[in-house]
Design goal:
Chains A, B: It comes from Camelimonas lactis. Chains A, B: Its EC number is 1.3.1.12. The structure is a homodimer. Chain A is of the alpha/beta class. Chain A has two domains: about 180 residues, 3-Layer(aba) Sandwich (Rossmann fold), CATH 3.40.50; about 120 residues, 6-phosphogluconate dehydrogenase C-terminal fold, CATH 1.10.3660. Helices cover about 50% and strands about 10% of the residues of chain A. The first copy, chain A, has twelve helices and nine strands. In chain A, the strands form two sheets. The first copy, chain A, has a six-stranded parallel β-sheet. In chain A, β4, α4 and β5 form a beta-alpha-beta unit. The first copy, chain A, is globular and about 65 Å long. The N and C termini of chain A lie far apart (about 50 Å). Chains A and B meet through α7, α8, α9, α10 and α11 of A and α7, α8, α9, α10 and α11 of B.
Chain lengths: ~300, ~300
């Protein structure tokens, strides 16, 4: 499959965690004849050059996409339209333009008006990442055994879709296709709501006047520290996601709030059976995630517990 | 310090994750001359015996505490009163009775009426754990560099408090003393609210009719899977915690809800600056937790990303 998915020239616009992981994985698996990289930040370009992530690196997106067969936009969702406008005139006829944004409806809407006929717009979203940002944060195995969701618009060329899917499969990802609308609903619950809740609880804890920040930090191993990981994700990226998947996110907040109100009521009225019933059901979901290979079975995420050498 | 904290005979009542970790750590650090274990479950007793966790193991708590200098109750918070009544008549004069419960006010209230004069009741709470339960889940380094909060009641014997603190320090824990009331407020935000939120979001996702459970599991690497870890914690233990720290937990839910309402409003009205401001502040909290040694600096909690061998 990897052989069939080789592209002559790959352009990566935006060389952060995801872009740089694509560059590394594509090179490692021999998926691209040449890799051109562009990033608006001269620092990021310098780092990418130093790390040898591409055959060409610069700040001009249009230069990078010239002659590319596959262009992947790895910029925040709110910057897609601007990048689309910048590269439109330089795209090669027949090129595939894709992206890695966590919202798909809004990305389509932003990009489609800019792209010339004869170019294939096939959005995609690899459901993978860490809380770190920047070209140095990426690694070649980031997509391995993670899902990449491809959302072909109506009437998309099947050949182009197949080529993009093969490219992601070649980097070790599992690929699934669905509509942009369905993607945005599913990710609202598996990704956007969790991030919002994590940001919110960390903010709540930081702002309490009755408990000091130093106490919150000291005793965070009681559960709180888990939430701080995704609440340390890139602020620009996540601002754009929430602004661009408003309806689905607000719907999920509504559901979450209803359920939390019921839980608070159970606590207030001492309904232990209701609590026990929920707390038992939720264990099964984690088991399903571990069994499906999307989570480690090691306790505590496999966090390292210090050994006794210094005890 | 370890030398000074050696107790002649240690009794551990309840041999789950925490009890069995204490047994292992106390033995490893030579903190007890002998260890007696009791658990209401014959299966847990059999497992503890097989693992050699104590010098004596049985189902009768009163037998285990006879002649013990330090008794540590490692049972769910809701079972403390019952265990206190069962052991009261068998306690040696001058013995220290402690516990590991995540709520301290209610534990004091449950235990104090049962205990005879001449016995020192000094509650404690090691802020450490994993999502796993049972005697096999424990390990000797669980408390290493974690905080153990000791909540001496007014008028407690300083000698007894010092002995208990030294025992925990001997297992590698950092020890802090505070009032039971303060403990219950601080832990409501660093532990109880995070668990409640995690249980709640996992329940919300499981119950959605628009998104299937299989989709939730598949695409959980987008953030959701992080929450499933603490939502896989022991249901009995957590039911009891919420029922026994009602006021502080309900207060924290109220704060959380206010903040979430403000965030939802920012999303609805497209206030990107408000989102960006919060998402930037929350990064600093994680940095503080890592710098204080309460969290790994490795990305993704140090979760293992599969290597390329099978790619």
């Amino acid at each position: 499959m990897a052989k069939a998915s080789v592209v002559n020239r790959l352009a990566i616009i935006g060389i952060g965690l995801i872009g740089s992981s694509i560059a590394r994985a594509a090179r490692q698996h021999g998926l691209a004849g040449a890799i051109a990289i562009a990033d608006a930040s001269p620092e990021a370009v310098a780092t990418a050059s130093r790390l040898g992530l591409g055959d060409a690196c610069g700040t001009d997106a249009a230069t990078a996409v010239a002659d590319a067969d596959l262009v992947i936009l790895c910029v925040p969702v709110g910057a897609m339209g601007q990048v689309g406008a910048a590269i439109a005139g330089a795209l090669k006829p027949g090129a595939i333009v894709s992206d890695v944004g966590s919202v798909k409806g809004a990305v389509m809407a932003q990009l489609a008006p800019h792209l010339p006929g004869g170019v294939h717009l096939i959005p995609a979203h690899p459901v993978a990442g860490t809380e770190n940002s920047g070209p140095e944060a990426g690694f070649a195995t980031l997509f391995h055994n993670r899902w990449c969701i491809v959302t072909p618009p109506e009437g998309a060329s099947q050949q182009a879709v197949d080529a993009l899917c093969a490219f992601w499969a070649g980097m070790g990802a599992n690929v699934e296709t669905m509509s942009a609308e369905r993607h945005d609903l599913v990710l609202a619950v598996t990704s956007h709501l969790p991030h919002l809740i994590a940001y919110n609880i960390v903010g709540t804890a930081a702002d309490l006047e009755q408990v000091t920040r130093s106490e919150v930090i000291k005793f965070s191993a009681g559960g709180f520290r888990d939430f701080t990981r995704i609440a340390a994700s890139d602020p620009t990226m996540w601002r754009d996601i929430f602004l661009n998947n408003k309806d689905a996110v607000l719907e999920m907040i509504g559901r979450f709030n209803e359920d939390l109100a019921a839980l608070a009521r159970a606590i207030r009225w001492g309904d232990g059976d209701a609590l026990f019933e929920l707390f038992t059901r939720t264990r099964a979901i984690r088991r399903g995630i571990i069994d499906s290979g999307q989570e480690t079975a090691e306790p505590d995420f496999g966090r390292r517990h210090e050994d006794d050498a210094t005890a």
